[in-house]
Amino acid sequence: MGHAARQEKSSRSGIGRMLKEQKSRLYIIRRCVAMLLCHRD
């Protein structure tokens, strides 16, 4: 039972890490799009 609880905790932190990575990726993509639009004008 202890092992299962530990696994749940690690998966929860993994989800948080994934969300953080997605946020940074979205931010980078947004920056790239903004730059492209600025250069196009």
TrEMBL record:
Pfam families: DVL. It is found in: Cell membrane. Keywords: Cell membrane, Developmental protein, Membrane, Transmembrane, Transmembrane helix. Its main location: membrane. The keyword 4Fe-4S does not apply. One of its GO terms (cellular component) is plasma membrane. One of its GO terms (biological process) is negative regulation of cell population proliferation. It is a single-pass membrane protein. InterPro entries: DVL, DVL_RTFL_regulatory. Belongs to the DVL/RTFL small polypeptides family. This is ROTUNDIFOLIA like 8. It comes from Panicum virgatum.
